[in-house]
Backbone:
């Protein structure tokens, strides 16, 4: 079953905070539980008195629902998989929410399959106000907003400004693609040889050497 929670707001922060408090207590006797001071999981909680702590749910706010270790990049096992191995009976009663990068229904399905009880969608809702309906109908959800959509999406300017990486200028992109297509049809002729150009970087000039044949780039090195 798919269930959606558009924004979990401060409750999820409480989830982390409460977990933090209880896991710190528990870490006195266990050394595989805890969050760092930024709320990042560096060790996973495996034991928590969910009733005493009043913990409603646990929410992994790690940038991506499929996050692996933030300590050891070689360790590819997802945190949710680790969590399920570590959790005790009490923690097993607390629903766990996956968040971060759920953009399409397929992401939600995969997250649920991998062991989350719920998934949470943040940025998806900003650009796709009917995200859940679309996902339930197996429709593709928008992942970007067009530069002209701010009003239509009723997004206030301060939020719009920080969404810059999610905003595309479709008209400008179309012109750019058209130009690239045109350029692909232009016959290329080079004066064969090796050429060095310099870009100016923070630490001085950065050379780029390119070798041309009459119609191809044969090699380049920086
Ligand atoms: C506008 C905005 C407001 C948010 N507010 C909260 C919040 O109040 N509490 C919280 O725990 N997370 C908040 N988040 C973080 C999201 O819940 C979520 O963890 C994050 O956006 C990653 O998920 P996403 O890739 O689906 O956006 C907010 C995110 C956005 C974009």
Residues:
């Amino acid at each position: 079953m798919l269930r959606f929670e558009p924004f979990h707001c401060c409750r999820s922060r409480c989830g982390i905070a409460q977990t933090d408090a209880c896991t710190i207590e528990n870490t006195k006797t266990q050394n595989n539980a805890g969050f760092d001071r930024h709320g990042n999981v560096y060790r996973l909680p495996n034991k928590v008195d969910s009733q005493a702590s009043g913990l409603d749910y646990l929410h992994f706010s790690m940038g991506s629902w499929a996050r692996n270790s933030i300590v050891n990049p070689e360790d590819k096992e997802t945190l949710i998989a680790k969590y399920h191995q570590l959790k005790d009976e009490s923690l097993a009663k607390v629903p766990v929410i996956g968040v971060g990068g759920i953009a399409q229904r397929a992401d939600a399905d995969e997250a649920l399959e991998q062991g989350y009880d719920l998934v949470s969608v943040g940025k998806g809702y900003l650009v796709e106000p009917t995200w859940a309906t679309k996902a339930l109908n197996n429709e593709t959800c928008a992942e970007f907003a067009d530069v002209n959509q701010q009003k239509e999406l009723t997004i206030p300017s301060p939020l719009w400004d920080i969404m810059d990486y999610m905003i595309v200028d479709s008209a400008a992109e179309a012109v750019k693609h058209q130009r690239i297509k045109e350029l692909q049809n232009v016959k290329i002729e080079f004066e064969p040889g090796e050429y060095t150009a310099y870009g100016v970087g923070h630490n001085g000039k950065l050379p780029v050497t390119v070798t041309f044949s009459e119609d191809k780039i044969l090699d380049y090195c920086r």
Notes: The longest strand covers residues 193-201. The pocket of flavin mononucleotide is lined by residues 8-10, 12-13, 61, 99-102, 120-124, 159 (CB under 6 Å).
